[in-house]
Design goal:
single chain, alpha/beta, Nucleotidyltransferase, domain 5, 2 domains, 6-stranded mixed β-sheet, 15 helices, globular, zinc ion binding, exonuclease activity, Ribonucl_H
Length: 347
């Protein structure tokens, strides 16, 4: 009886135990547990991020039972668990990405514009920029000097050097590979803005895109997109942006951003940014991360976000007594996510 009472006060998602049911209800009200959280395939524990799930499975303080099985059957990249070591070997061969096709970028970028009509209809684009030093205090003013955009198939749809609007005191050549000769005949920033907007809007009027019902506009993928868009003097609706630096499942356990280099090595299985930074390489990495997150298979549910008005009363204070009589499993079924899961893009 004591065991049953204890389990009744144990969160069905993260397994935290509470002294009173009212404390468990308060926890569920603020934790936003949902089926969209990274979940251990062995014990079904919910984690707030994949880094947290990795710690649970691998360390530094893993659950020993899960660690032993995961070592035999677990994929170190997507953290799924397979039915046999043979199935795991086949899975990891497909799960681990190879490096990008550097041959694609071996040819110099067209100084005016690069556009590729690849015959595919694409709905998502990845954007990356290469910055140089525009001066400011301690060289803190970044100026965009090179832009690259790719589609879902990793084809270049736009790649150009950008003519800086101000003098550049430091090209950061060791990291950027860019010199004055690259930017002398670069495309003016205003023209770059128009081209990027054309790709993003895809024939839609900008005022339509500001509505969540935008139909033709493309989803924009990138890493730390806010400062990047600022450097380009561009605005794009937040609900159309997928930022791998700000996506909760890809963030650190302390809710800070991971670097793109770390995310690529950890979740895709190869290294980037080893020498001169290549914006095409960054575009491909962010697109692959986005597609990996989007292709997660989660159970469909009506109104999956806590912010939806239809979920407003799920954990309302007026329902406190009713909630305290519910089982932890029943409370988990009405709990919703506080972030937009990218798997919803595929629905």
């Amino acid at each position: 009886m004591e065991f049953a009472e204890s389990s009744r006060k144990k969160c069905a998602a993260c397994f935290r135990e509470f002294n009173k049911m009212e404390h468990l209800v308060d926890h569920m009200r603020t934790s936003y547990h949902s089926l969209h959280e990274p979940t251990c395939a062995l014990c079904n524990k919910h984690c707030r991020s994949f880094d947290s799930l990795r710690e649970h499975l691998i360390g530094p303080l893993p659950k020993q039972e899960c660690k032993k099985l995961f070592k035999i059957l677990g994929c170190e990249f997507c953290l799924s668990v397979l039915e046999s070591p043979h199935a795991l070997r086949l899975h990891q061969h497909r799960c681990r990405f190879s490096g990008v096709n550097y041959g694609t970028m071996s040819r110099p970028a067209n100084k005016s514009t690069t556009g590729v009509d690849n015959g595919f209809s694409y709905h998502v684009v990845a954007l990356a920029c290469q910055m140089v030093d525009g001066g400011g205090n301690n060289g803190s003013m970044d100026v965009c000097a090179r832009v690259c955009m790719v589609d879902e198939y990793e084809n270049i749809i736009f790649h150009v050097y950008v003519k800086p609007p101000i003098p550049v005191p430091n090209y950061r050549y060791e990291n950027s590979g860019i010199g004055g000769e690259h930017l002398r005949d670069g495309m003016p920033l205003k023209q770059v803005q128009r081209r990027i907007e054309e790709f993003l809007c895809n024939g839609e009027a900008m005022w339509k895109i500001r509505s969540p019902k935008a139909g033709k506009a493309r989803i924009l993928v990138g890493h730390h997109l806010h400062p990047l868009l600022q450097s380009l003097h561009l605005e794009y609706p937040s609900f159309m942006i997928r930022d791998t630096a700000a996506y909760p499942p890809l963030m650190k356990t302390n809710k800070l951003s991971n670097s793109l280099k770390y995310l690529t090595q950890t979740y895709l299985g190869y290294d980037i940014q080893a020498g001169v930074q290549d914006p095409y390489e960054d575009c491909v990495a962010t697109m692959r991360l986005y597609l990996r997150m989007r292709n997660q298979v989660h159970q469909r549910e009506d109104y999956p976000q806590a912010s939806d008005p239809r979920n407003r009363n799920n954990f309302a204070p007026s329902r406190q007594s009713e909630l305290e009589r519910m089982s932890p499993e029943a409370m988990l079924t009405i709990s919703r996510s506080d972030y937009y899961c990218w798997c919803l893009d595929s629905m």
